[in-house]
Amino acid sequence: MKKEKGRPKRKDVMEAPFEIYRRSLPEAEQEKLALFFDDIKNHVMLAKGEVLKIRTDFENALLYYSSAGLSLDDALDRLSVSNLGGFYARPPVLWYKLDDAAKIFPLSMRHGQMSVFRLSIYLKQDIVPEILQMSLNFTIKRFPSFATTVKKGFFWHYLDASKRRYAVELESGIPCRPLKISRSASQSFRVVYFHNRVSIEYFHVLTDGTGGMIFLKTLIAEYLHLLGTEWTRADGVLNINDIPSEQETANEFLRAGKAEKMSGYSYQPALQMSGKISKVQPCRILHFRLDASRLKDIARSKNVTVTSYILALLFVAGKSATDEPKGCISIQVPVNMRKYYPSETLRNFSLYCGIRLPADCISDTESIIENISEQLKQETSLQSMSRMMASTKRMNELLRFIPLSIKSAAARNMFGFLGDSAFSNTLSNLGVVKMPPQMAQQIDSMDFMLGGSCGMITFENTTTLSVAKRTADPSFEEKLYDLFAADGIIPVMEGSELYEC
Amino acid sequence: MNVKIIYPHAEKKKIQRQDVIHWAKWPFLLAVIACVIVNIAAGPPAWCLISIWSLWMVWSFFISPALVEYNRISLWIRFITSSSILLLIIDTLFPAGWSAAVVPIVDTGGLAVASILFFTDLERQKQNMMPLLLLLFSCLFLSVSGLLGGRMTWEIIAAGALAAAVLAVCIAVLRKGLIRELRKRFHT
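Predict the joint structure of the above. Result:
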């Protein structure tokens, strides 16, 4: 027998699973499939590699549906190519100026340090990566300001549209670690999954917690839809096939009035937790899963809001974690400006205030809670936040004609010098998240995490307080746990290993 | 307090960029200070400027590279620009007059390579047009200065001609895209 010359073709060695599946179909279905993939070609006009990736995503999803026993017709119906819209077929022409709150984030970032926050949803079933990838392929077009890459202008950074396949990844690294945004068309968010959890980590330049949550909810809604859950549109879940409105990408800081003087940016150093700051940031993640109704009852019994109550606990726990006898503990509290200025924007529209107490006044929660509640009321009042919003706008106007290279150098040094020491901690409370009932049935819990601080979110009867630790010293979380337990709330503790000792 | 682990084990990189920056910062700063002191002690010319600029180049290319827009074109053009400045400093401190010929040659070569990188991957590289435009305008400026100064050597003519040609191609190929790119880059 004559020996064949040359390298064997790849398909001779091992046939791809999709090809085996395709050939197993009756001829009529094979034709349907061929037409379907032709249609994908018409909808995806990206570079060759990207087209191949998207085609493979469709193939993987079809294979999953086949293994789940779904008929080809139903599978093709769910994966309807029209869901891709024109996003992958049109060249990228959109670009966005950064909103006034976002301008500081690219200016202040350094190697290994970036403002990243993370939102997670825990489903009752393990994640199907093939379907999650398809839901991201379909969802991204609804959020054009997220499908962007950070670029440098002469005066400011900006977001430039980037048409590519946005990938979901199996979670493997440290949560909230910096994103690599320096390459051409780099993405400024990452979607990761692990067991039953889907998380999105955002560079803050894109959005704030509210905008990020809308994206995550819409992604999960599409994911569940692809898995066969029907739900009625409500509660901040967007229709992926709607045309994005201009209001969704608006810089709402432009609504601010004229600032008479700069306010809200005074700098006073705050006490920091003792212990060696870990080289790996955050060095550990901890979630305190709390009974939401019990938490509410306790806060109500003390005549304060849940945020004030948690702040009081953080002050006491913070004091137990520092050896400094004198000075002030200051906790930064981000404030959602949509409360005062209703808005549909998905960009950043939040500011912050600081709650400050002398360390020697902090002994127990009862003695400080009233003071905290009062400060919180004052600092987050409409007048106070409007003044800060006007100041933010004014500051950006003053800096607008200074070249970026000068602003960058100044901001990096200022932020390095002031940013870490102005606050002892941060508590960002995203509040109660509602989902359409059909979706809520499939969701177990949620969490919200800020790099190096505390984030809080409530879904159904579970409030999750997430602590992203900066030092390995466990005294802060142990004290916090004891304080909750003393008030009759036994937290269910979940988290990560210590990433660095 | 029992913590249920719900995150995967994360492998930590052995060497992190920030560690390299942290450890390299002090030797670099010491080298700069040492060069200045020795130069002051030894007297003119101010050769420490050459050392400082070279150290800056090593720092910004290898130790602490750009966090935004670290792509082939911007990296290459930053390299060409920094090298040209280094050549000008050397020729200014040790005058021999060769920089008038060498810098335009380096810039012309750099512009040629950058144009190849740009036009062979136009769809993706459109977003990285700004550094190319900056080098292009620098070459044009160099040629106009040469023309006005009465020094029209072949190197300067070549730099000007190539820059004008690349600019013309950019305008012809990109049209509105060029204006949009300029608007993005110079927005306030």
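Residues 144 and 180 of chain A are 20 Å apart (CA to CA).
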